[in-house]
Amino acid sequence: MVQLEGAGKVPYLPKPWGGYLTGFVATATIDRMDFGMSAYPSGLSHKVQVRVEIEGVRTSS
Q: pLDDT tens digit string along 8-54?
């Protein structure tokens, strides 16, 4: 799932971070066995949650 966290002008941040920013969060659950990660089958869960946070700066208007 990908979710928009926010978007808008942020003039108080110093360059190169100032300007129009957009943030997204992506989450997923994967089965580590699908990737051949079979070590410690009784100690680790097969399902692993992955979270990716992305922030982008608009470079042109």
A: 988 787 776 678 889 999 999 999 989 988 888 778 888 999 999 99
Tokens of 23: 């943030």
Give the Å distances, CA to CA, from 58 to 10, 19, 42, 44, 61.
11, 7, 46, 41, 7
Q: Is the pTM of this model over 0.85?
A: no
Please give the Cα distance from 37 to 48 (Å, whole number): 11
**What is the C-alpha to C-alpha distance for residues 19 and 13, in angstroms, rounded to an integer?**
8
